[in-house]
Amino acid sequence: MSTSVITASQRAGYRRARRRETASAYALLIPSFIGVGVFLLLPVAVVIVLSFFQWNLLSAPTFVGLDHYRDLFRDARLLNSLWVTAKFTLMAIPTSIALGLLLAIALNRKLPGTKMMRVLYVLPWVCAPLALGVVWRWIFDPSTGALNTILGRRIEWMSDPHLALPAVAFVSVWSTVGYISLFFLAGLQQIPEQVYEAARIDGAGPVRMLFSITIPLLMPTMFFVTVTSVISSFQVFDLVYGLTGSASGYPFGSTDVIAARIYQEAFVTNHIGAASAIAVCLFIVLVAITVIQQRFFSGKITYDMS
Length: 306
Hints:
The chain is 71% helix and 1% strand. It is mainly α. Strands 1-2 form a two-stranded antiparallel ribbon.
């Protein structure tokens, strides 16, 4: 019986080869590191620093410490923006996820024309939100809009403070439901057909299979879709701007989402420090919501589909 002995020189050669491979890997990652540092980490650091200064883009910045953060809790407009954003999220996200799941189930049946329907459903998400907002603003026009013409009555969709935010949420759902359905469709295609066959043999109907098989096995996709959708809903701005034609929360602050409030503070009133403080608080809120979602889904996610 022969045995192979690794000499000290061979071990040193292996270590040198490992170091060369590691150096090559980091060299290939350098462009990505530069992009992340310059376009993500550096702007975040700049915003955090600016939140401690009073600056109007013209005069020299003045250090004010935590004054901006103290003022946030006394700003009624900011509290209204948070409330409006929360209402928008609660209206848009559950609806878009539910419809996206149902649409994915329909597409997964592989009926004729399914591939073409996938392309059509995702087109609204590909289009620029600002352009979609402008188009839907025309559709919602109370005098010459297509929607009121079809309904045969005059409804002030974007002028009524009770209808403006639901209208924005409707357009948001319309534009994102196809995109969400593609993720669910990818998850559905990973579920073995044998699981459904066994359930049918046991007498399970479509509703029982949906809640006992499909949704539990789609929890990884559900987690991803929920987290990304909530983050996007808290950052919505261009769609609201296109629909209302204003960043001031028209009408009567009913569409004054948090991103629009940041825009108002930064580029209308030139309060760069206050806008930066709001952005930092928004970042903290999103991190907290993401952690809560991760805790909620952590015990429900399974990757075993065998």
